[in-house]
Structure formats: C-alpha cells, structure tokens
Amino acid sequence: MNHRRNEPADPLNLRSLPPVTSEHDAWPAIRNTLLHQRRRSRAWRFGGAALATAATLVLALTLTVNAPVPDTVSPNGPGTDDLLVAESGREAQSLPLQEPSVESLIAMSRQLEARVRQSRYRVGDLPVRQLVYQVELQDLIVQVDEGLSRNPESIELWSQRVNLLMDVVALYENNLRRDYYRMASV
Prior knowledge:
Layout: H1 2-6, H2 27-65, H3 102-123, H4 128-150, H5 155-185
Helix pairs in contact: 2-5, 3-5, 4-5
C-alpha cells in the first residue's frame, strides 16, 4: 500500500508517449530576436531622451525670446532702449537671456499636466518597459513637488518639474506614434 503512494501520478498516461526529438535547434533564432529587441529598445530610449532634450531647448529658447523687454530710461528719451536702438543706425544688439518667471513655469506645468492626462487617456496602458520609466519619472516629480512644498518660489525646482513633465509627455507621445505606425503598417 505504501508502494502506491510513492509512485508519481500519471493520470493522462503521458509517460507512454514516445519522447520528442528536435532536429532543429531554435536557440540561435531566439537569441537573435532578443538581441534585436534589445537594440530597438535602446534606440527608442535614446530617441526619447533626444526628443526630450530638444523639447527642453525649444522651450528655453521660446521663453527667452518671448520674454518682455525691461523698461529702461535711455538718453534717447523715455521708452527707447539702448539695446534695441543704436544712435548711429547700426543693427540692434541682441538682448541678454533672461530666466523665465515662476508664474510662467507654473502655467507651463499646468499645461503639461493636462497634456499628460489627455495622452494617458488616449494611450491607455503602456508596455512594461515604458511603464517602469514612467513610474520613475513620476517618482522624480513627487520628489520635486516635496521640494516645492518647502520652497514654492524656486525657479530651479519649477524648471525641473517642467522638464520631467515634458519627458512624461514625450513618453506617451512616442507610444502613440509607435502604435500609429504599427496600425498603419497592417
């Protein structure tokens, strides 16, 4: 009776089937596929980082070019600026770069948050690799928000928050673009 308890159960009688032998080794194809996927994922990450950097530069240039010109009193009279008007008729000199105001960074942050919500609604669930990256970005945003709760007028913290939100937007938009191309190729 103890002998029956020690026997492994085989209710479907699978041990009676002949062993399966494979004439073709699939491992090289699997390895090549995994390497190809790894290269593609690295390219996507590099592309996303490059896109975020380019967007940050465009934002910085837009904010500095559209910044209001400070009113200064010049010898040419009120309302004229020595940087823009040259007495001898030479071309105007360029304005020095100015940091964006806290109010403009807060407004940009709100716009980006709304854009993230829209993108999240359109995209739905992200693939696991992108989801991990998105969670890390959200963690960094929470850390910046903690710093902003202690120092709400910090231009550096608001700039970091805007840059992180731009990275999240880029992540979702890259996913939308990839899904669009995938559907278009079908």
